C-alpha cells in the first residue's frame, strides 16, 4: 500500500454555470469547469479572468500614502536631493529596488541604492546602516519591500532632519513609523481601503513608478512579475495582470539580465512562463542573497548591456550551484540525524556545526516535505545556534514560540515560518515548548492538506489540444494553481530513477492510452512501484515536453496512492549477504536460519522471526526470506501483518521441486538393497550406497525416511537394518511422502511460478475474507 500525502477532493461544481459558459460563451469544458471552480461563474468575471489586461489595474493614486510620497519624491528630484533606495535581499526586494531606481533615474533623480546583506545588516531597517548613509550625504530614504517595523530607526532619521518614504507590503504592526509617507496596500481599512491588498513589494514599487510617470510603468512590469511570483503572492486581481503582462514582456523581449539567467540555465525565453520564475529565475536570484552580496542581483536586473549581463549571470549560476550543493549536503546530514535519533517528537529540531545559515530555510522545507512534520534547522558556532523554521498547514509555529521570547536572542516570523537565534543550552527547552504546542494544537489530528482535482482523465486526454486549452488559464501560481487531474492506472512500466535516485519517471498504462509520468521527489518509491498493486491512482498536472523537435505530453506527478501491498519479485537461488542489505523487514520462517542469518541483515533492515512477526501492526517492505510451512501459514501472516510492500525471496537450500519423485521401481531397488545388508553405517557409507544404487542422494534419503515410517527399516545410532517380514504399506500414502509432495507443490507455486503468477497468488492470499 502507498498512502496519499494529500486528501484528494473533487469539488461539486455548479453544473448550470458550467453549462452556461460552455454553451452560451463557447468555452472549452475544462476551462469552464476550472473557472467555475475558482469562483468565476459570470460572463463578466470570466472575461476579466481569461483576459488580464493593463486596463484592469487600479489607479495607482488610490494607494494609501501615494500622494504624499509622490509630492516628496518630486520635490527631491527637482531640488537634486540625494535619494537612497533601501531594498531587501530576496527576489521581491531586488526587483522592487530595480523598479524604484529605474523610475527615479528616468526622471533625472540623484539616486543610489543599497540592498542589505542577510548576514551583516539583516532584514529591514538597520540603524547602523542608516547612520552610515546619512554620513554619506543621504537626504531622502525610500524603502522598498520593507520598513513598516522600523519605528526606532526612522525616529532617529527624523531627529537628524532626514525624510523617509516607506513602500512595503508586509504585515502592519500596531505602531507605525513616523515618516513622510507610508505606501502600503493594506494601510487603510474600510470604505477608503485600496481595492486589492495583496500586492508584492515589487507590485507596490511598480505602482509608485506608475504614479511618478503618470502612466503604467510598462517597461518594468517584468520586474514586478518577478517579485510577485517569487514572493508567492496570490495570482488574482492585479497580481494576475502584472504576472500575465510581465511574463509576456519577458517572453517577447527579455531584458539582458533575465535573458542571461535563462541562457545560463539552458531555458529558451520563448518558453518562459510563471513557473520559470518560480523554479529557474527566482532560485538563482535568491542564491545571491543567500550566499553573497545581493547588490549583484539589482545590478544584473538593471543592466542594459548583454555582455555585462552574461558575466554577472555566470556568477549567479556559480552561486546557485553552490547553493544546491549546500542544500543537498545539509539535508542529507539532517535526515541522517533524524534517523539516528529515532525521534518521537512531533516537531523536528535538528542542528549541525557550521551549516551555512543562508540555506537553512530551504532545508527546513525539504524536511517538512520528507517527514510531514514542522521542522527547525539550526546551525551552531559552538555557543549560539541560528536557524529557520517551517511549519505544516494547520499548525501555528509562531504563537507558542513568540510566548517564550526569553529563549531567544532574536526571533521573528509568522504562523508558517520563523527565524531565530538562541544559546545552545536553550535547545532542549525549545523542544519542550514545541512538544507542548504540538499537544495543545493537536498536531497529530491535523488533517492532510487537500488537493482539489478538476477531473478524471486517461492517457488519451494528454494531447496538444487539451494542453493548449489549459494555457488559457495561465499564469498559474498561488490561488490560481495548475489544474490537477486524477489518472487511474492499470499498471506501471519502464520505471526508472533520475538524479541519483531522487526523482522518478515511468509509463502509466491506462484504459485508453499510455501516459509518460515524471515524479520529482518520488525516487524512493521506485522499488515499491515496480511491484503489483490491486489499484493505482495518480494525481498531477499536464506538461509539455519538446526534445529534438518532438513534442509529447506528460503528467507531472503531485501525489500517488496504491491499494494493496506492492509485490516485488526478489526470488533468488543464492542467499548472498547483499540480498540482506535492503531497507526491509526480513521475515524468517525457519528458526535455525533466523539464528544463522539475522546478524547479516543490514543496518537499514530488521530481522524478524515468524513468531515475532505477529507482534507488529505495520511493516514497511516485508521480505520473505525462506519458504513457509504451508500456504495457510503464509496467508495468516499476510492478512494479520499489513505491509507496504511484499518482497518474496523464498530461498531454499535443497529444493524438492527439482528432485525426482521416487517411482515404484526406485522403492523396489532400495528395498532389495536394505533386505540384503545389515548394519549399514549411514553416516560413513551413505554416499557409497547412493553410488552403488546409482541414485540421487536426496531421493535415497527420502526413501529411507519413508521406509522408516512404514516400518521397513530401523535406524539406531546411525546404523540402518531391515525389518523382517514387514507389513505391506502403500508408500505414497505415508506422511513423509505426502509432506514431500506438498513441499514440492509449495515450491512450484512460490519459487518456480512466473512473476505474474506469484503476484496474483500473493495478492489473493493477502485479501481479507468477508
TrEMBL record:
Task: Report the residue ranges that make up the Single-stranded-DNA-specific exonuclease RecJ C-terminal domain in this protein.
Answer: 567-760
Name the GO terms of the biological process aspect: DNA recombination; DNA repair
Q: Does the keyword Phosphoprotein apply?
A: no
- List UniProt keywords, sorted A-Z: Coiled coil, Exonuclease, Hydrolase, Nuclease
Q: Does the keyword Hydrolase apply?
A: yes
- Residues covered by the DHHA1 domain: 350-439
Tell me the ranges covered by the RecJ OB domain, including all copies: 457-559
As one GO molecular function, the record gives:
nucleic acid binding
Domain of life of the native organism: Bacteria
According to the UniProt entry, the coiled-coil residues are 302-329
Q: Residues in domain DDH?
A: 82-228
Q: State the similarity comment.
A: Belongs to the RecJ family.
State the protein's name: Single-stranded-DNA-specific exonuclease RecJ
Question: Whose protein is this, by species?
Answer: Weissella minor
